[in-house]
Design goal:
Layout lengths: L1 H8 L4 H22 L2 H8 L3 H8 L2 H11 L13 H10 L3 H20 L1 H28 L9 H19 L6 H16 L2
Helix pairs in contact: 2-3, 2-5, 2-7, 5-8, 6-10, 7-8, 7-9, 8-9, 9-10
Length: 196
């Protein structure tokens, strides 16, 4: 079923897909998940509602696909030759505006994540798991290069910590996460814990 849905979506040009996903994310920032409707997305993106339901199944899948589409980085674009450099490159890949927009989207889905198990599961599988896998891959390269001991307990703790920084920031601060903030967290917490 997933393969069939992916095949159907491939008929949309990258531009049309980007327009759709941008419309979803704009609406999330404007009205939040609960008030976002498939009808509003269809109107804003100029898609038929039937197409959205046929190709994405429902609101949780469409929101997760939009959030995944705008993922800030892919692991295969980062390999500086050092763990410190790779983690800095990961932080630098999204500018401050992108981080602020990501925070606004997180706030838009915040409450729904707790009340909608389907959305929570979908976001975890489609968006969060790949990001955690990417950070784990960067850390494994550091272990392979001998920069971090393979039994360092921080190896399992750093990925969720880094991912949660952007997610939790809107709840604990009035200002959105910026690149400098991510670097400070890495320098004060991640690097010492990893022994680099």
């Amino acid at each position: 079923m997933a393969e069939q849905s992916t095949a159907r979506r491939s008929r949309f040009t990258p531009l049309r897909a980007a327009q759709l996903y941008d419309a979803v994310l704009d609406l999330l920032r404007e009205v939040g998940y609960e008030a976002l409707s498939m009808e509003a997305v269809a109107t804003r993106a100029r898609f038929s509602k039937a197409t959205l339901y046929r190709d994405w199944g429902g609101k949780p899948e469409l929101v997760a696909a939009a959030m995944k589409y705008r993922r800030p980085v892919q692991i295969d674009t980062i390999d500086t030759g050092s763990l410190r450099g790779d983690l800095y490159a990961l932080a630098a890949h999204s500018d401050n505006e992108e981080l602020a927009q990501s925070a606004a989207v997180q706030l838009g889905v915040g409450h729904a994540i707790y009340t909608n198990p389907e959305l929570r599961r979908t976001l975890r599988e489609v968006m969060l798991a790949p990001i955690l896998d990417d950070i784990h891959a960067i850390l494994r390269r550091g272990v392979d290069r001998g920069e971090v001991a393979p039994d360092n307990p921080a190896l399992d703790l750093i990925p969720p910590m880094l991912a949660s920084l952007v997610i939790a920031r809107p709840l604990i601060s009035e200002t959105p996460m910026a690149q400098g903030d991510v670097r400070r967290y890495m320098e004060a917490l991640a690097f010492p814990a990893l022994g680099i």
